[in-house]
Amino acid sequence: MVSKTKATLDRLVIILGDQLDPGHPLVAALNPARDAVFMAEVREEATHVWSHRARIVLFLSAMRHFRGDLEERGIKVRYFALDRHSHASLSAALAAELKGHRPQRVAMLQAGDTRVQVAIEATVRRARLPLQVVADPHFLVEPKTFQAWLGQRKQPRLEHFYRAMRKQTGILMQDSEPLGGQWNFDAANRASFGRQGPAQLPPPPAFSADKVTREVIRLVNREFPEHPGALDTFDWPVTPADAQIAVRDFVDHRLASFGTYQDAMWTGEPFLYHSLLSPSLNLKLLNPRDVLDAAEISLQDNVAPLACVEGFVRQILGWREYARGIYQARMPEYAELNALDAEQDLPAFFWTADTDMVCLREVLAQTLRYGYAHHIQRLMITGLFCLLLGVRPQRVHAWYLAAYVDAVEWAELPNTLGMSQYADGGYLASKPYVASGKYINRMSNYCKGCRYNPAHASGDDACPYTTLYWDFLVRHRERFAHHPRTALQWRNLERLDAKTVAGIRQQADDFRNSL
Ligand code: FAD
Ligand code: SF4
Q: 278 C-alpha to center of ligand 1: Å?
């Protein structure tokens, strides 16, 4: 806890755990003689969803390193460290600080999470102090610019937004045309590894825990012993310098194969050619512009081909900014959407990985071990299972927000509710991402070691994905059978006779009841 001595402060700058930007504009404008920074580690941020322990360690360790850097620069930091007696919530810690030190004014970057922004605004208002909220320059598009782009569009589309961003930034552009004559190399980004599996994979760099991180690990083990997730594998970057090393390593060793195998999965290989940069980006240890520059340079230097670089750029310049724009524009009502009226509970094995479905066991086990799964694992293994089963989207959201080290609500919620669960009725993504076990079989080797058969929808060895897939098609026939983007997929139902359909539906019900 901080001491209670009174001091006269001009400006108090609030810095949140996901605003650890080394170029933070309000820090750059600080007057060290009269201003101070406020940072707080609070239990609420680790418990409002049942956070993975590695996620808690990542945030707290990165915050403590950031505090150290500020103090080295002679900046006063009013830092509330987490212990048994610390404030339960950010609002409580901030209220105590405002009461104790009575700054003239308070300033902050716009919080990523609307819940946090609302709580801070209310606390500062109660203290009768002025609050300056500055747009977060980390992002390439400001909320009001996104809102203008969104305009009256009934159905925004990533592809349109992405092209506008390419034109706006000039990234992968030649004059006003896309480099290589194509906006999108998506079709070249869907290879699987075939029977032989991936070649020798370059291991991602490991950042071993320093004294600060070791102390935080002890704290988290002590304070959150019942929380899910392992800590013995914790090796995420917690400083901007380490995050830069991670970018260099990705660009030099994995980017050249990233695009090609973006959607592929393989048993025992959680990372493949992915960048693992989302935690550093989301905590703002990394600036997306630097990451995009590094990718473009690797193309110019012939280190990585255009299709791979474009595939990567699309994720950061496209999806990441798009998700955040939709979140800012549609919250808070977005969080409550449930277009498919899904009401099932989340299966308990999501917290233990104790299931005989090999694909789910693999992805859940690596999630609990590392706090990481790559995009297709999140979308087409865990997400797909919840969508087909009919789990209430808000329960799925709470799990994703808890389970991954990179989880921040502005990125997680649109991906979960919009892209993965179709809870927004097709606003973010035009069609539901539904597939049977055959898709998983094509993109991975998971089915090889599984007791189920991905080709079977009924019978003892029927793959639950395949059963639930056909069941989903039947349950939502009315909504999708005449939709231009989904009609083709639903037409397959016409091949099944009534008896087969009844059998599949019974098997799906039995499966649901067995969970
Ligand atoms: P790479 O595959 O190497 O991709 C490069 C970068 O692109 C990522 O680091 C990330 O910053 C960005 N990116 C890629 N896809 C997306 C996307 N769909 N939305 C936003 N950014 C993207 N991402 C998060 O950052 N936080 C989350 O909480 C989160 N929750 C998700 C939940 C679900 C259900 C799904 C389907 C996706 C979620 N994603 C989330 C998006 C994506 O899965 C992760 O960004 C990615 O897996 C992170 O691993 P990586 O850094 O190795 O990414
Ligand atoms: Fe998963 Fe079905 Fe394949 Fe088993 S058979 S690994 S449950 S997709």
A: 6
Instruction: Locate 419 and state its tokens.
Output: 């892209």
d(CA 348, CA 367): 15
Ligand 2 pocket by C-beta < 6 Å: which residues?
357-359, 437, 440-441, 446-447, 450, 452, 454, 463-465
- DSSP per-residue letters across 398-430: HHHHHH-TT--HHHHHIIIIIIIT-TTSSSSSS
The rounded distance, in Å, linking the Cα atoms of 253 and 83 is 41
Least Cα distance to 444 among 189, 261, 260 occurs for 261
Q: Count CB atoms within 10 A of the CB of residue 499.
A: 8
pLDDT number for residue 117: 96
Residue nearest to atom 22 of ligand 1 (CA): 320
| Beta carbons within 8 Å of 109's beta carbon, 6+ residues apart | 15, 16, 19, 24, 25, 26, 133, 134, 135, 136
| Averaged confidence pLDDT in the chain | 94
| CA distance linking residue 343 with residue 475, whole number of Å | 14
Distance CA(496)–CA(87), nearest Å, equals: 60
**Span 299-324, pLDDT tens digits:** 999 999 999 999 999 999 999 999 99
pLDDT digits (tens, 9 = 90+) for 36-77: 999 999 988 878 888 999 999 999 999 999 999 999 999 999
In terms of DSSP bridges, do strands 105-109 and 77-80 run parallel, antiparallel, or are they unpaired?
unpaired
DSSP code per residue over 353-401: ---S-HHHHHHHHHHHHHS---HHHIIIIIIHHHHHHTB-HHHHHHHHH
Contact between 266 and 445 under an 8 Å Cβ cutoff? The reply is: yes
Residue in 360, 447, 507 to alter for ligand 2 test, most ligand atoms within 8 A of Cβ = 447
Give the N- to C-terminal CA distance of the chain in Å, as an integer: 45
Which residues, other chains included, contact 188 with Cβ-Cβ below 8 Å and sequence gap of 6+? 259, 260, 307, 311
Report pTM: 0.95
Cis peptide bond prior to 332, omega within 30° of 0: yes
Q: For residues 340 and 417, is the Cβ–Cβ distance under 8 A?
A: no
For ligand 1, is residue 281 a contact (CB within 6 Å)?
A: yes
Rounded to the nearest 5 degrees, what angle is found at the Cα of 226, between the Cα atoms of 221 and 229?
Answer: 70
282 lines ligand 1 (CB under 6 A): yes
| Calpha distance 92→86 (Å, rounded) | 10
Q: Count Cα atoms within 13 angstroms, Cβ side, for 247.
A: 25
Cα separation, 354 vs 350, in Å, equals 8
